[in-house]
Amino acid sequence: MVTKEMTIQEILAVDEDLADILMASGMHCLGCIMAHTENLEQACAVHGIDADALVDALNAYLEQK
Fold first, then answer.
1. Which of 27, 36, 44, 54 has fewest C-beta within 10 Å?
2. Which domains does the chain have, with CATH numbers?
């Protein structure tokens, strides 16, 4: 399960395929140094992305897998 408190790197460790959803949402900084320190909620705020909707999409993907 993905939460807003997880870093991008922690999310990708759950499932590398989640990168596709992150990229499609506008999160193009997967290799950025901040991906190791910022949590998803912070990254979403910087990029103007709805963190709750993104978490829902990531978890929906994991449930289908």
1. 36
2. 8-64 (1.10.3910.10)
Token couple for 8: 């991008």
Contacts 24+ apart (CB under 8 A), 27-30: 27/54
Torsion, Cα 17 15 36 4, to 10 degrees, reads 100
Q: How many residues does the chain have?
A: 65
Read off the pLDDT of residues 3-51 as tens digits, 9 standing for 90 and up: 999 999 999 999 999 999 999 999 887 777 777 789 999 999 999 999 9
pTM: 0.91
Do 38 and 49 meet the contact criterion of CB atoms below 8 Å apart?
Answer: no
